[in-house]
Design a protein that fits this description.
By secondary structure, the chain is of the alpha+beta class. It contains 4 helices and 4 strands. The protein has 2 domains: 59 residues; 92 residues, 2-Layer Sandwich (Alpha-Beta Plaits). The protein has a 4-stranded antiparallel β-sheet with strand order 1-2-4-3, covered by helices on one side. Strand 3 and strand 4 form a beta hairpin.
């Protein structure tokens, strides 16, 4: 008899602990378990999002770990593209401009600094003859891919 009440008290204590951990306001056992299940699903989704963020961060921090920042903003007719690195990046400008060319973007205006750091601020407009529409995400991916290719090729040059 004592052990049955002891088990019931332990179960009640564990349910209250589960209720507090999952921020549940439920009072009955089934609702507490349902809330805990929802909480676990939310945690799984957060873990998945964090894993995706980590993968994206790792793909943008290439092997030589250049701290490179790339932003692309949509303008009325084109894009404002900013690329920045704390380090000098010989040859990167050519790679980025080739990516613009492959996308069919015309450089309308640009400011570049390549001495101690690398800084590119460019306004790119879509080519009139271009059949497919390009958005900011496509431009950013192309620039990131150009940086990756440049990084890999400059790394190979170091080994030669």
């Amino acid at each position: 008899m004592v052990s049955r009440e002891h088990k019931r008290a332990e179960l009640h204590e564990k349910l209250q602990l589960l209720r507090s951990i999952t921020n549940s306001h439920a009072m009955n056992k089934a609702s507490i378990v349902v809330d805990a299940s929802k909480y676990i699903q939310e945690l799984k989704q957060k873990v998945e999002r964090l894993n995706q963020d980590i993968a994206a961060a790792q793909s943008s921090n290439y092997r030589n770990h250049l701290p490179m920042q790339v932003t692309v903003e949509t303008l009325e007719k084109g894009f404002m593209i900013n690329v920045f690195s704390d380090k000098s990046c010989p040859g990167l400008l050519v790679s980025v401009l080739e990516a613009f060319q492959e996308l069919g973007l015309n450089v309308l205006e640009a400011r570049v600094s390549c001495s101690d750091s690398f800084r590119l601020q460019a306004v790119g407009g879509e080519n009139e003859e271009q059949s497919e529409c390009v958005n900011a995400q496509v431009v950013k991916q192309a620039v990131l891919e150009a940086i990756k290719n440049w990084s890999e090729s400059s790394e190979q040059q170091e080994y030669l």
